[in-house]
Write a structure and sequence with these properties.
Helices cover 26% and strands 31% of the residues. The chain is of the alpha+beta class. A four-stranded antiparallel β-sheet has the order 4-5-6-7, with no helix packed on it. A three-stranded antiparallel β-sheet has the order 1-2-3, with no helix packed on it. A hairpin with a 3-residue loop joins strand 1 and strand 2.
């Protein structure tokens, strides 16, 4: 084996080692977004809690997550009920899902999400006597209308 062959092999090994180190450094800089799920894998209970949590209010105040009597709030949430806290219920259509809540001001949409292939066309989030969300798909439209009957949100037919 000649001197030139040894130099070529040594140069190739050094280049491969440098490329590997640069690649590992780049992955470390980019972080979990390239190598795993950002924020980790969430349990079903964590997902339900996140979906039921109220949306942030625009004035910078935080809404409370209501809890049932005799239970405690999740860490990082407030156990004090908000002015609108009441019975919450989820509703589903082929076009999407929504969570509504009955309170002192009437019914209010807490959250909504279109199904795959659908988009939200119109939302009346309340609080009011009734609230509605319309999911628009490529060939069909679904409208979900909710009212309070007693203190419980109930899906009703459109007037």
């Amino acid at each position: 084996m000649g001197r030139r062959s040894i130099l070529v092999a040594t140069g190739w090994v050094a280049t491969a080692a440098a490329a590997t180190l640069i690649g590992l450094g780049a992955i470390r800089l980019v972080g979990e977004s390239i190598t795993g799920t950002p924020g980790g894998v969430r349990s079903e209970a964590e997902i339900e809690r996140a979906l039921a949590a109220p949306e942030p209010t625009p004035n910078g105040t935080t809404g409370a997550v209501p809890t049932a009597p005799g239970t405690s709030a999740a860490p990082g949430t407030s156990a004090a009920p908000s002015a609108s806290s009441g019975v919450r219920r989820g509703f589903a259509t082929d076009g999407g899902t929504a969570v509504a809540e009955c309170g002192a001001g009437g019914v209010r949409l807490v959250s909504w999400a279109p199904a795959q292939g659908y988009r939200v066309r119109d939302v009346d989030r309340g609080p009011d006597d009734d609230v509605e969300v319309t999911f628009q798909g490529p060939t069909r439209e679904y409208e979900l209308k909710v009212r309070c009957i007693g203190s419980e949100p109930v899906s009703v037919a459109d007037d």
